[in-house]
Amino acid sequence: MLRLGLTGGIGSGKSTVATALAALGAAVIDTDAIARQLTLAGGAAVPAIASGFGAEFIDAQGALDRARMREHVFAHPQERRRLEAILHPLIRAETERQAGSSAARVTVFDVPLLVESGRWREQVDRVLVVDCAEATQVQRVVARSGWTPQAVEAVIAQQATRASRRACADAVIFNDGITREELLAEVNALWEGWCTGL
After folding, report:
1. Against a cut of 0.85, is the pTM above it?
2. Beta bridge mates, 106
3. In this model, does residue 197 exceed pLDDT 70?
């Protein structure tokens, strides 16, 4: 089995690449989706978040108030580490549970903060980075989410630099100025190169 780490900055097109890999037969484990699941009403992380941060960070439905927490950790960067100390062990356990139950010959770990975490590089066989210019990231996220450019730039500033992501990559797809078809062709070429014979 090939364990493939997939990462990229916000708005890079990483989700499109993950979808393409799934269509080729990979099992895709989305750590962002796991984090969301853990913080929904009844999620395993909610009691610890309420205890550690206060009931005001839990919304009326009993889920994490994501907008409030986002503002809080941007204003107080040390608080991000406290939140991660709650979430990361739970995400890791669920990630490994899903990987262990997969029969696919390729498992893709979709990890937005793969570089920042410092532990993922040793746990995967290859790392694929989806990259694009920062201006493109801002343009895409504003168009799809309605965030202000400043809000997107604040998220980008909290993430690993493009250079540090590329430095840990076994392959980089530069998803800027190309069509969706060209992007998918690059994904297919990598799949053929890495997965033939598995």
Report:
1. yes
2. 2
3. no
